[in-house]
Write a structure and sequence with these properties.
heterodimer; A: 414 residues; alpha/beta; D-Maltodextrin-Binding Protein, domain 2; 17 helices; B: 287 residues; mainly alpha; MetI-like fold
Chain lengths: 414, 287
């Protein structure tokens, strides 16, 4: 370092005296380049609207020439697979397909933001199978043609074993692009160490008594639904005026300082540690919490039922392997261990019987856990429970930006 | 011949970085400016309509977030100066031959990922965590006292995460001060305080100036700290831009907000440079 001539260093760091005489010319030149760029980009970004209907020939065209490659990359939410990956190991052993499993999905909107650019460019997103919740982003993926059309003739187990409520859903007619992974309920979780009364109603999330101790979900559809439930509005039949009324309530709740934070996944941690005392929550997350202090309820005003779906991005490198796994999960025996772990509603009704049988044979704490599972109304809801649950509002292309504009800014503090 | 090549040399030397900047800075910037004036949505596509309203809409809807970001930026920058100056001073004047070791120790935590450092704060500051739990339990702090999800948490996180950008330029400026100048001050009967305020501080100001620019700009546009440590009342403009761009695919709005932020920061920095009496901002920053 010391051997360098100081004059040389000075030459490197000091501006040349004549510099200012270049400047104006450089600016002019830059403006010229900028003008050219503007002209280039003025034509805008192409729209990517895909087709709404999928025909048999689309399916054949997509799957023609595609073969099994013996490997598979799967993107999922956290907590949706046993910690020791038991189900994946069983699948690998049976089929010889190697699965790379990543828990990369935290919330639908950011996930869509992440995969949108490569999918629009027709590039691989690095995953052959992903889980998407029914809602705004899945609808966009469908409309933009980002999802592979499913070959239902290769999904025999799905055809045979899926419950009727899980087939042909309104958000994906004819299961053209998706089949369910599982369903769950959005309700309220509360920590009984701090909350000394029974929580039964959404109104309690708006109680000033719990100032700074309430968590809400940041997702605009989840949040919007709870605002509407509070006002006795059925989200599925709601209008723009209803949304505005609900947004006003939610904003009031926020501005009074009742809401501590709008969460994506991290509410589980917050409610078990006591950072928040009561929070909007997803049924299975709470069911599988080890903390006995946290309870989950479906509020009397109603709760949201949603479905997380298996789907294949159009640019997948191993779509046949992905389809194989999708169908394999619909063998009831294969699904049982998964349901035992993730504690959400399986799309296969016969798992209830299988788990009950397993409970009869088991002993001790295992018997207790399995019995609790097979009789839980959160995992296998009764008809009357189901009647209280509502779906997300299905938004048309024109409604979606209006809905987002109303609810989205709330969690962002605007 | 030799003269000709000599005249070309500066151009050849600037060519690689010039090209680099053109491809990865200038063209994207131009595209983003263009995008900020378009209208449309993801499914139908975006078209250039010179919709200047994107800017006014953005400023109207999120004006308070701009103000909050600049305010947080200012607070965090001041906190950084308060923390960095004494540390840099001590290392530069009292560090002896272990100067670089001390500097390295100061920078060591920053080898850990930015996100991880911020998330670990969350574990430390949680309501019933190792610090607040006992304090609240023993009644020293009121029951509903909390730090997480408040502006205090966000500003502290910002100041912590960007501290090196303040320490290094101040250290460099102090380190370059000729000790004989300070001795001369004492010889002329200056007190320690006078020597500091009239000799050392003015000579180190360019370092502080560079440090302020290097912290204030990224701090004001940061979104990670507000996301992890903040609550709904602490959203910064960076969070809004991130959501608009990545979650809502509202590219024109996100671009318009970005350029508004850039313009505000540039105006702020030029104003700052003027009040500090520096003629040329870039020159001062480069010093």
């Amino acid at each position: 370092m010391s051997s360098i001539d100081p004059a040389f260093l000075r030459g490197l760091t000091r501006p040349r005296l004549a510099r200012s005489s270049y400047a104006r010319r450089d600016v002019l030149r830059m403006m010229g380049a900028a003008g050219a760029g503007l002209a280039l980009s003025a034509c805008g970004v192409q729209g990517q609207g895909g087709k709404e209907k999928v025909s048999q020939s689309d399916v054949q065209k997509y799957w023609a020439g595609k073969t099994r490659n013996g490997r598979l990359n799967w993107a999922n939410w956290p907590g949706y697979m046993q910690d020791d990956r038991e189900t994946i190991k069983a699948f690998e052993k049976e089929t010889g397909i190697r699965v790379t499993y990543k828990e990369v999905i935290q919330e639908m909107a950011p996930w869509f933001g992440k995969i949108q650019a490569p999918l629009a460019a027709g590039q691989s997103i690095g995953f052959d199978l992903m889980i998407m919740t029914n809602g705004i982003q899945l609808e966009q993926c469908r409309q933009l043609g980002y999802l592979a059309p499913l070959d239902l003739s290769k999904l025999r187990n799905f055809q045979a074993n899926a419950g009727e409520a899980f087939k042909n859903p309104s958000y994906d007619p004819g299961n053209a692009h998706t089949i369910p992974y599982e369903s769950g309920v959005t309700g309220i979780a509360y920590n009984t160490k701090y909350v000394k009364e029974e929580i039964t109603s959404i109104a309690q999330l708006f109680d000033p008594k719990y100032k700074g101790k309430v968590g809400m979900l940041g997702d605009s559809q989840e949040l919007g639904n709870f605002g509407m439930f509070l006002l006795g509005i059925d989200p599925e039949k709601s209008t723009k005026a209803d949304w505005e009324k609900a947004a006003e309530k939610l904003r009031e709740q926020r501005d009074k300082g009742i809401v501590r934070k709008y969460y994506s996944q991290d509410y589980v941690d917050a409610v078990s540690k006591g950072d928040v005392w009561l929070t909007m929550a997803w049924s299975g997350d709470v069911y599988s919490l080890t903390s006995p202090d946290v309870k989950f309820v479906v509020p009397k005003e109603g709760g949201t039922i949603w479905t997380d779906n298996l789907c294949i991005p159009k640019t997948a490198e191993n779509p046949v392997d992905a389809l194989t796994l999708m169908d394999w999960l619909y063998v009831p025996e294969n699904n049982v261990p998964l349901t035992e772990f993730i504690n959400y509603m399986p799309p296969i009704p016969s798992t209830q019987r299988l788990i009950a049988q397993k409970a009869e044979k088991a002993t001790g704490s295992q018997k207790r856990d399995l019995t609790r599972l097979s009789t839980s109304p959160l995992i296998f809801p009764s008809e009357s429970d189901l009647a209280r649950l509502r779906h997300y509002r299905r938004l048309t292309q024109a409604e979606e930006p209006e809905y987002q504009k109303i609810f989205e800014p709330i969690a962002k503090g605007s | 011949m030799a003269r000709g090549r000599g005249r070309l040399a500066p151009y050849l030397m600037i060519l690689p970085s010039g090209l680099w900047m053109a491809v990865f800075f200038l063209i994207p910037m131009v595209l983003m400016v263009s995008l900020s004036l378009q209208t449309g949505n993801l499914i139908e596509g975006f078209r250039q309509t010179f919709h200047w309203q994107n800017y006014t809409d953005g400023l109207n809807t999120y004006g308070d977030k701009f103000v909050r970001s600049l305010w947080y930026g200012l607070l965090a920058t001041v906190a950084c100066i308060a923390l960095a100056y004494p540390a840099a001073y001590w290392i530069a004047f009292r560090g002896g031959r272990h100067k670089s070791t001390y500097l390295f120790l100061l920078l060591l935590p920053y080898f850990v990922s930015f996100i991880l450092r911020t998330v670990s704060w969350k574990l430390v500051l949680t309501d019933n965590g190792p610090i607040l739990g006992p304090l609240r339990g023993s009644g020293i702090l009121p029951k509903d006292f909390h730090i997480l999800d408040t502006s205090v948490a966000v500003v502290s996180g910002l100041a912590y995460n960007f501290l090196p950008f303040m320490v290094l330029p101040i250290y460099v400026a102090l380190e370059r001060i000729d000790h004989r100048v300070v001795e001369a001050a004492y010889d002329l009967y200056a007190s320690r305080l006078q020597a500091f305020t009239r000799v050392i501080l003015p000579l180190s100001l360019p370092g502080v100036f560079a440090g302020v620019i290097m912290t204030f700009v990224p701090v004001s546009s940061d979104y990670v700290n507000a996301e992890v440590l903040g609550g709904p009342q602490n959203t910064m403009i960076g969070n809004v831009i991130q959501t608009e761009y990545f979650n809502n695919s509202a590219y024109p709005m996100a671009s318009a907000l970005s350029f508004s932020l850039m313009a505000i920061l540039l105006v702020g920095i030029f104003a700052y440079a003027r009040t500090l009496g520096t003629q040329d901002v870039l020159e001062a920053a480069g010093r």
